[in-house]
Amino acid sequence: MAVGIFDSGLGGLTVLDAVQQRLPDVEFVYLADSANAPYGVRTADNIYDLTVAATQRLFDAGCDLVILACNTASAAALRRMQESWVPQDKRVLGVFVPLIEAMTERQWGDNSPPREVALKHVALFATPATVASRAFQRELAFRAIGVDVEAQACGGVVDAIEDGDFILAEALVRSHVDALKRKMPEPEAAILGCTHYPLMQEAFQTALGKDVSVFSQANLVADSLADYLERHPNMAGTGETAYLTTGDPARVSSRATQFLRRQIDFAAA
Ligand code: DGL
Fold first, then answer.
1. Which end of the chain is more exposed for a tag (fewer CB within 10 A), N or C?
2. Keyword annotations for this protein (predicted)?
3. Of the listed 70, 76, 77, 220, which one is catalytic?
4. Residue 121 belongs to what domain range?
């Protein structure tokens, strides 16, 4: 059985790359809904419909477990999918919780009551839809008290990355960090709450300054998936990955190859 990894576009490759390294025998199917990216400017209902369709495509490709390697889909659609759509023999997991567990010094699945943690001032950088959902603050409130979160919606960054325009992406990152700092001058930590943003991690770190700890999801999600698979040990396979896109396979393959610095060949979904 393969594990499905879904993103609106290429950002989920940052998660896929980390989980492939951590779990070299597991088979993956990566699906990029490039025809409909970016999701971050869409309504919650629209994101729900697109995420359900993409997840069904991964079920049809033989995946019983699907990771939404997209914060926007995790924030706007995951809870509703789990409550009313996911069939009993399938699992769909998001990328928010592992990050919040790491930030709040918790082990995987520790559901004890919220408590004080070391971090007090946290900057969240995410897409407009993720910020509007307030899902991050909701999940954080289940686990920690006394943490002040300032969220910055980073319009335009995902489009620039999908277009391969890193000069524009960097300029936008600088301006979003400036806007955040006007609201919270001294964050102790910053969350890159979009799987595209690790591709711009250096730009975020430089604009924020070296004293700010930048949390990004890829390794945290890889660790928690490894933990999950150890408890569900029927996943070892050939270690192969299939790449599917709803967009133009040639264009998406060329961007993906540029991002991961190795040949990636997408096929039509
Ligand atoms: N990588 C998605 C995320 O983590 C990008 C969202 C988008 O398509 O705008 O939120």
1. N
2. Cell shape, Cell wall biogenesis/degradation, Isomerase, Peptidoglycan synthesis
3. 70
4. 97-215
